[in-house]
Amino acid sequence: MAWILAVVLFVEAFGVAALNWFLGIVADRQNMSLAGIDPDAMSVSSKIGGVVFGLYFLLCAVVALLVAVRDRAPAGLGRILLISVAVVHGLLGAFAWAMVLNKAAFVFMVVVLGLVILLLMTYDRLEGPSGAAPASDGPDGPKDPEQPEKDPAPIVPPPAPSPS
Question: Of 51, 97, 109, 124, which sees the most CB atoms within 10 A?
Answer without folding.
Answer: 109
